[in-house]
Write a structure and sequence with these properties.
Blueprint lengths: L1 H8 L23 H6 L8 H9 L2 H10 L8 H15 L2 H16 L2 E3 L12 E3 L3 H22 L5 H17 L11 H13 L7 H11 L8 H14 L2 H7 L5 H17 L5 H4 L2 H11 L2
Antiparallel strand pairs: 1-2
Helix pairs in contact: 3-7, 3-10, 3-11, 5-6, 7-8, 11-13
């Protein structure tokens, strides 16, 4: 498909999945909520929203600004996160171990101090990417964006389905460095954590985050992808909590809300008619074949 070739051209399409060890279910396996939700390619549209919510935490914004190629390559963080998530969701045990090791190696060298005050954090406040608290926040943004995007773009999720999803992704969170001491025990506790973070004073969108948001919301892509970028921007802004929309200075009036609703409805109508090879990530198909031993 031309759109997929264009994604490869801009460096966003993840590597072709490797089948791995026959019969190995990995962390989750067929029938899991993680596979059912995570197989949907359309959830890629939630990636920019997850990034913006991550950057609303000043310690994360500082780490991204100073220790990644993000200012030069606006797709780098999204691509790296996507590769890790797909490998750890659908890979076999060895692939999961390798992906987790790559994430840990990148995080070990990311440490520093805030150059200027940001919300409750004074200038000089230390940060490190392997801090379990920051790991929990990054993990929480991925869960939040995936579940909310699935709800509006694919199908409603029952409370029990959300609860199962959260319980299933706990091992995933541990691989990212989240400790059991701070892990929300269930989905209501996870929701309470999110609400406390969003409603408290920890999330402050500073100048660093606003500058990093520019290539997220308006990435440099070939002209053929500009309509997709406009649609993704609308979904991104629609998924953000109200308080973060305001902090990022993103307009959200009735006209935009109506366009967002119409776009989400259109996606929900079109999606069931797409062939599986287009609708789902190839990592899901390869994983199903691996587990079946074919």
């Amino acid at each position: 498909m031309p759109i997929l070739r264009d994604l490869r051209d801009v460096g966003l399409s993840p590597p072709t999945p490797v089948r791995g060890i026959r019969g190995d279910r990995g962390l989750f396996g067929p029938g899991s909520e993680v596979w059912r939700v995570g197989r949907e390619r359309v959830l890629l549209a939630a990636g920019p929203a997850a990034l913006l919510v991550q950057l609303a935490r000043p310690l994360v914004a500082a780490a991204v600004a100073r220790h990644s190629g993000f200012p030069r390559d606006s797709f780098q963080r999204l691509r790296a996160t996507l590769e890790a998530v797909l490998a750890m969701s659908f890979g076999d045990d060895r692939q999961i171990e390798q992906a987790a090791a790559r994430v840990a190696a990148r995080h070990r060298v990311v440490r520093g101090a805030l150059p200027r005050p940001a919300g409750p954090f004074p200038a000089g406040h230390p940060y490190r990417a392997d801090d379990p608290e920051l790991a929990l926040w990054v993990h929480a943004t991925l869960v939040f964006s995936a579940l909310e995007a699935y709800e509006v773009l694919v199908a409603p999720l029952a409370r029990a389905e959300r609860s199962r999803y959260w319980q299933e992704v706990k091992p995933f969170a541990r691989l990212f460095g989240v400790t059991d001491a701070i892990m929300p025990v269930d989905h209501p506790a996870f929701q309470a954590y999110l609400e406390a973070m969003i409603g408290g004073g920890t999330l402050v969108v500073g100048e660093e985050a606003r500058q990093l948001a520019i290539p997220i919301l308006d990435p440099p892509v070939p002209w053929v992808l500009r309509p997709a970028v406009a649609a993704t921007r609308l979904i991104t802004v629609g998924l953000l909590p109200d308080s973060l929309r305001r902090q990022f200075g993103l307009a959200w009036d009735r006209r935009r809300r109506e366009r967002y609703g119409a776009l989400c409805r259109a996606v929900r109508v079109v999606l069931p008619g797409l062939p599986p090879a287009v609708r789902y990530w190839p990592h899901y198909r390869v994983a199903m074949e691996r587990v079946a031993g074919t």
